[in-house]
Amino acid sequence: MSTDTTHLDPSHGAGGPGPEGSADGTGQGAARGDDRASGTAYPWDQGGGSRADERGLPFTRLLRTELRKTVDTRGGRWLLVVIAALTVLATGLAMWLGRDAGATYPTLLTTAVLPQAVLLPVLGILTAASEWSQRTALVTFTQEPRRLRVMAAKTLAALGLGLLVVALTLGLAALAHVASVSLAGGDVDLSVPWHLYVGVVALQVVYVLMGVAFGALLLNVPLAIAAFFALPVLISLATMSIGWLGERSGWIDPNVAAVPFTAVDQAPTTEQWQQLGVTTVWWVLIPLALGLWRVARREVK
Amino acid sequence: MIEIENLTKRYGAFTAVDDISFTARPGRVTGFLGPNGAGKSTAMRMMCGLTPATSGSARILGRPYAALPNPTRHVGVMLDAGAQHAGRTGREVLTLAAILVGAGRDRVDAVLERVGLTSREAERRVGNYSLGMRQRLGLGAALVGDPRVLILDEPANGLDPGGIHWMRGLLRDYAGEGGTVLLSSHLLSEVELIAQDLVLIGRGRIVAQGTKEELLTDAGVVVDATDRARLGTVLDQAGLQPVPRPEGGFTAQADPAQIGSLALREQLVITSLAPAGGGLEQMFLTLTADDAREAA
């Protein structure tokens, strides 16, 4: 398994095997009993390997468990299956619509990431909030009492999975384009303006983080999902009906701010980047900060 | 070693845990006994840093829990056997715990064997487990890191008598190797079987603590003789405060040897002589009866 050596507890002594080596699972028996029983010889009081013990739980292990937790339940696996299925479906639809001339790669790309914009945030919400609904937070935060470290691992896990999905989608869109033009008899053209790649990746990162933020803020999966989908709609309604807000919708409404980033012809302007930044402050950074504060302080029951 | 000093938790006007102090020593199984709602779980959550204490301190292996580096390597915790994702298999739960302590697959197998779960049971989802199986799994997850201290909330709940006997053996062995065990229970009979030291808690306060023998001896002995009337007189004269029992005989504040020599001197035929375990039971029943919900 892992190659690091932090598991080597000096209390096991030179003769005793580590936990991995203890095939009978009964520990190292009476030899260790003396220093245990004294009640004062703690691993961190001893010389030598105690620094390894002092270093605590490596972040890589935390990240590994959090990644594993996102896919080791039926709910998590189904979410990924649904994302994959809808991505394939969207790609197929774009291929069918462009069946005469052959669907272009940018069109396939922007269509294929559409379902992900809706579902990857759910992955973020589940990662951040499901342990509070399932009560496994009780276990997780006893394993690592530094709760923000756990949240950092969860956020990175969700981001990593999200980016993996995006990367696979780029590959799928390219394959779909090749298939589409071969059927229609056109030329393969895999060139895409760089701003589209940047835009697609930036948006997916923002969406996943927004999911994590809503999950951490509400710590309740159904509530967070409902809020995640309802609040932007309410804001859109507000910007449409109130003139003052409508003029500034790009700075308030995350959906409006996102539009230029999937445009093929034109790179987003500096102002549009600023708008994405500002809406990200409202919809990601502020809820995330409040959520982390809440996670750090909340009593785990 | 678990050292609890003046630990207190208030929720507004309600005091869930009221200034408790005790020490769970290495090499011993300490039972944390009290009726439901007495504050056991709140106290245990405070020990593990999940609930912030209003005041006081809890130190494990000399440190506050949150200051332990990689705590599962040193402290095995099971606060609620039901707090597992129903969709994970038992093996997966242990694998996640094993990754965190840096142990391998063989450690998971060893733990499964130690807590008596077969590999077939381990492949099943936790949602299909009985409470007893969840307790075994939770105990297994606590043991994965080969810790020196175990903190277990109601670990015997849901176990059948055979299971309780098994757990007694496992925890006694673990303590025998120098480990510290603190376990809670709301059932006196359960804790009496498993624990060596007892801490009795009621309404957030500690009402008694000591070794099981001390607490049982404090209650005196139950004694009966063929000449019951004269036994009463003799006990009274010896200053042993006999109290007649409804089912016959007396409860007296003495140890069996005192009664024996007294009987020899007074030529009494003793028909029964036993420690009055009921003292602890009486204390516990009083605690329970004080609770409005039980009295209603």
Care to describe what's here?
The complex is a heterodimer of chains A (301) and B (296). Chain A has helices spanning 30-38, 50-54, 59-71, 74-97, 105-112, 114-134, 137-143, 147-184, 194-218, 221-241, 243-247, 249-252, 254-258, 270-297. With 301 residues, chain A is an all-alpha fold. The model of chain A is unreliable at 1-40 and 46-52 (pLDDT under 50). Chain B is of the alpha/beta class. Chain B has two domains: 2-211, P-loop containing nucleotide triphosphate hydrolases (Rossmann fold); 220-276, no CATH class. Chain B has helices at residues 40-47, 90-101, 105-114, 119-122, 131-143, 161-176, 188-194, 212-218, 228-237, 256-266, 278-290, 292-295; strands at residues 2-11, 14-24, 29-33, 55-60, 75-78, 149-152, 180-185, 197-202, 205-211, 221-225, 243-244, 250-252, 270-275. Chain B has a six-stranded mixed β-sheet, with helices on both faces. The longest helix of chain B is centred in the middle third of the chain and has 16 residues, at 161-176.
Secondary-structure map with pairings?
The complex is a heterodimer of chains A (301) and B (296).
Chain A (H helix, E strand, L loop, with lengths): L29 H9 L11 H5 L4 H13 L2 H24 L7 H8 L1 H21 L2 H7 L3 H38 L9 H25 L2 H21 L1 H5 L1 H4 L1 H5 L11 H28 L4
Helix pairs in contact in A: 3-8, 4-5, 4-6, 4-8, 5-8, 6-8, 6-9, 6-10, 8-9, 9-10, 9-14
Chain B lengths: L1 E10 L2 E11 L4 E5 L6 H8 L7 E6 L14 E4 L11 H12 L3 H10 L4 H4 L8 H13 L5 E4 L8 H16 L3 E6 L2 H7 L2 E6 L2 E7 H7 L2 E5 L2 H10 L5 E2 L5 E3 L3 H11 L3 E6 L2 H13 L1 H4 L1
Parallel strand pairs in B: 3-7, 3-8, 5-6, 6-7
Antiparallel strand pairs in B: 1-2, 1-4, 8-9, 10-12, 10-13, 11-12
Helix pairs in contact in B: 2-3, 2-5
Overall geometry of chain B: elongated
Number of strands of chain B: 13
The geometry of chain A reads as globular
**Largest sheet report of chain B:** 6 strands, mixed
Indicate the multimeric state.
Answer: heterodimer
Order of SSEs of chain A, N→C? HHHHHHHHHHHHHH
CATH superfamily of the largest domain in chain B: P-loop containing nucleotide triphosphate hydrolases
Most extensive interface, chain pair and sizes: A-B, 64 and 64 residues
Number of strands of chain A: 0
Q: Please report which band the strand proportion of chain A falls in: under 5%, 5-15%, 15-25%, 25-35%, 35-45% or over 45%.
A: under 5%
Please give the alpha-carbon distance between the first and last residues of chain B.
Answer: 39 Å
Number of spatially distinct domains of chain B: 2
Order of helices and strands of chain B: EEEHEEHHHHEHEHEEHEHEEHEHH
